């Protein structure tokens, strides 16, 4: 996105495929700020943990880095 928050911590738009336990996979997107030291963990194809609202699966957030 080209924006850094509190130093070199980038704001990033994520397009995700979420694979919950015992439910079908679904796609979602979210914007999150990640720490500069964690950038390598958030590269395309990497597995990350998210939280989502099971009543409204468009509400997704990246679990803290």
SSE order and pairing:
Blueprint: E1 4-5, E2 9-18, E3 26-33, E4 50-53, E5 56-62
Antiparallel strand pairs: 1-2, 2-3, 4-5
Can you describe what's shown?
- The structure is a single chain.
- Helix content is 0%, strand content 48%.
- The strands form 2 sheets. A 3-stranded antiparallel β-sheet has the order 1-2-3, with no helix packed on it. Strands 4-5 form a two-stranded antiparallel sheet.
- It has no helices and 5 strands.
- The protein has one domain (4-62).
- The two termini are 18 Å apart.
- With 65 residues, it is mainly β.
- The mean pLDDT is 88.
Dominant shape: elongated
Stretches where pLDDT falls below 50 for ≥5 residues? Answer: none
Terminal-residue CA separation: 18 Å
Average pLDDT over all residues: 88
Number of E strands: 5
Structural class assignment: mainly beta
Radius of gyration: 12 Å
Looking across the biggest beta sheet, what order are the strands in?
A: 1-2-3
How many helices does DSSP assign? 0
Order of helices and strands: EEEEE
């Amino acid at each position: 996105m080209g924006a850094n928050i509190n130093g070199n911590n980038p704001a990033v738009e994520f397009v995700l495929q979420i694979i919950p336990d015992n439910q079908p996979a679904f796609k979602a997107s979210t914007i999150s700020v990640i720490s500069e030291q964690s950038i390598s963990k958030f590269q395309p194809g990497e597995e990350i943990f998210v939280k989502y609202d099971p009543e409204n699966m468009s509400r997704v957030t990246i679990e803290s880095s």
